[in-house]
Amino acid sequence: MDGRPLYLEPRLEPRLRSLVAAHGTLHSIVDALGSPLHVVVPDQIAENLERFRSVYRSHHLSGQVFYAHKANRSSALLRRLAATDAGVDVASLGELQHALGAGFSAGRITATGPKNPEFLWLAARAGVTVSVDAVAELDQLAALVRKHTLAPVRVLLRLSGFESSGVKVLSRRSRFGTPVRELELLLEAVERHADAVDPAGVAFHLDTTSVTEKATALEGSLAALELCRSRGLRPRAVDIGGGFGIGYLAEREQWEAYTTALTAAVLGRRPPLTWGGHGYGLRNESGTLRGTLGLYPAYRSVAGAAYLDELLARPAASLGGRPLAALLLEHLYDLHTEPGRALLDQCGLTLARVLEVRTQEGGGELLVRLAAKADDIALEDHGVLMDPVVVPRGGAGPGDVPVAVHLFGSLCLETDLITRRTVFLPRRPEPGDLLAFANTAGYAMDFHATRAQHQPAAGKVAAWQDGDAWRWCLDDQFWPITPARGAQ
Amino acid sequence: MRYDSITEAIGNTPLVRIDPAVHGLRTIDLYAKLEMLNPFGSVKDRAAWSMAGPLLAEAVEHGSQVVELSSGNTAKALAVIAGMHGLGFKSVTNRMRVPEIKDLLLLLGAEIEELPGQSECLDPTATDDPLTLFHRTLAASGSAYLHTDQYFNPRNTEAHLTGTGPEIVKDLDGRVPDWFVACVGTAGSSTGVARALREEDPSVRVVGLVAAKSDFIPGIRTIDEVQEVGLFDPETYDTMESVTADQAIEGMLTLNRRCGILGGPTGGAAYFGAVRHLRALDAESEERRTAVFIVCDRVESYLSYVRQRRPDLLGRPPRRNSPADLSEAEVGGAPSVTVAEARRWIETDRPLVVDLRSPYAYAALHIDGSVNIVDELFAELVRGGLPFSRRQPVLLACPVGEQSARYGALLTRMGHPDVRSLAGGIIAWRDAGAPLVRD
């Protein structure tokens, strides 16, 4: 397979596929606003929400889908979501202000993550639900409520360190949440602050792709809720966080061929596939492969709403082996989820203009420099390997021969690589072409972006379909009632 | 045969000829080495005993725990061996994907630890992968553990170099087979046997089988995963080929049903891979040749694996009085009552209120005076006939009124004159503000 290009083509659903194909529109936006540029597609997020809702419906579950705001700071996406029945999960004072300003009423907001006093006060003042990390935070919140004579605040008790019965499921240690074995102490604090807080249920968030670990935590949460009830509390909900993932690639075979080739390259059995022989976590120790592939599983057959469905179908061993969904329903608990990345699936792309295509002396990969920094297109930061799509400036390029390229950013730094791997493209890009990085809305757009070296951070626009045409406006100008959106 | 210890029964497994009418090869005699007949049920008995045996005396002295990264047969053999010597055994695994094996290990007294999954958001602060951390913990703990280290331990290979390989040659009357076909897991058996055979006759061809990359076959690694195995050396194999889970199950069925060999999917993969490889070579010459493959363990532990992939193989005739037989019209026509009507009915006629939810949910909150018969149990009950007197009115309740409607329709069909389903279920009951108790 050595000579053949190892493509990693992005999975494109109809809306994003249509946008990528709108070459004229994409070039005209970048001409107007510069490169790099993020384009978000607000209508897609509403469609993704509906997929989650349908999983809820199929299990007869009630409860809220909270969009995890941290995954993208776009106003357009947030406002589009405000026009649905979704909630939003905010992790900072700024995000809370943004959510309130976008039209989310307090009942549809959960505040989570590390909180400063201002964040906590505004949350309590507005009446949003607070996911409480520890006893100290509960004390702090109760003190605020009393001092400022606020109404009791609805709280979810965020838990961690779940233990399984029978088989011990080791879980990554989390810096958030109260270990379940300290739950009694937390409940004592809740009872102490009965005048200031209303315990609505428990919450957890596990950063793992493993359904088993999440199932263990959900089972542990049900046990924790039972403990709450036995102490006379009336909890109503369990919030299982997010982490349901995205399938980024169109074809399993490409992903498998690529990772196999990468393994062979690390073991020295084929030419390197990366700049400087980077192994993405794998290393060669005297002919044996060691380490772990530090990559996002970019081809995932089960992700997003389907992942939630699979989780809910898992049997709970310590509760008679009934599926978790059935137990939630039978206990009359609301299920809250906080998908970030999964709700942003297919919700946007990032455009970068090709500045230079350099042929190396003696052949080898082409060196392609883009008008963008690596932090503007942070796919690599999240271990997501996916090819960009070439959006040509003119008509047909100089032949359609596949090429291998290295993609560099515009910073004056050796480390500013848009991708650390060799990227295969079906044709040679030319200066002036755009590279469209698909599906970057979840974490890969503005999570890491800086203005280093006085280089611009990517601008952002919102785009929507109007019949056969794509229309757009600045992200901040987008409202669900924007007149040019036609009938909507 | 008389032994002083069960461990003496390890090895000397039969070599059984597969009927040519089954495999259809004209010129090649195909033999199965039945490692499934080892006392703890698999080829891993040899490796486990070879690796642990010499270290047991010292481990007993220190009270060490035996540990291994294994999700299956090695863990099983080590758990038994450790138990026989009064030692604990812990299996650390990436994911034990076959539930029966997990339960069996727990039954044998093993402790199982599952390693955490991959991070959804790539964590640049993560210091190392879980496996490296595991090795570091072992190294740091001194003699607290007896780590058999099957993926790197040369005694794993040696068990087959001195045992399995020579046994094959002996049973073929001193001849070395022309082909040896083995699935690659730890690479211990394939490497050891291959070496033993080559020492006798370097012309033996060795076929290594791996699982297709997207598939899972218990006990076999994929082409990438074998690279992580210290004992794996690509030079051992003349060719590497892959087998899918479906093919493994096909091969297993042939062994089970047509050969009377109750091997599991790994043995099935070996059979399938062997026949596929040999078929192409069968026509080449008229000379009689011989091939050997390994049946590494038994089918019994893999029923859920089969159920998941080939439910049709476990199909049973439909049962009597099953709610699944009802038409949608029958379910839609089931008598139901609203919460308000139900409350009045309970006051006046005292129907038996049956709550179909799980005992945990029932214990947390339920309608006062109701009885709890969880739906699965209820399904068993009604299979035999009506579980209530016809004169006893019955109110069925479930979370949202869906299952109760189904069972209401079923009981009506079975001849109960007054069974009703609570419309909207316990959730509607709660939402209407009707009392739920916890007693």
From TrEMBL, chain A:
It comes from Streptomyces collinus. Its cofactor is pyridoxal 5'-phosphate. Its EC number is 4.1.1.20. Keywords: Lyase, Pyridoxal phosphate. One of its GO terms (biological process) is lysine biosynthetic process via diaminopimelate. Residues 44-266 form the Orn/DAP/Arg decarboxylase 2 N-terminal domain. InterPro entries: Ala_racemase/Decarboxylase_C (IPR009006), De-COase2_N (IPR022644), Orn/DAP/Arg_de-COase (IPR000183), PLP-binding_barrel (IPR029066). This is Diaminopimelate decarboxylase.
TrEMBL record, chain B:
Its cofactor is pyridoxal 5'-phosphate. Residues 347-438 form the Rhodanese domain. It holds the Pfam family Rhodanese. The keyword Transcription does not apply. Keywords: Pyridoxal phosphate. InterPro entries: Cys_Synth/Cystath_Beta-Synth, Rhodanese-like_dom, Rhodanese-like_dom_sf, TrpB-like_PALP, TrpB-like_PALP_sf. SUPFAM superfamilies: Rhodanese/Cell cycle control phosphatase (SSF52821), Tryptophan synthase beta subunit-like PLP-dependent enzymes (SSF53686). GO terms for biological process: alpha-amino acid metabolic process. This is Cysteine synthase/rhodanese-related sulfurtransferase. It comes from Streptomyces collinus.
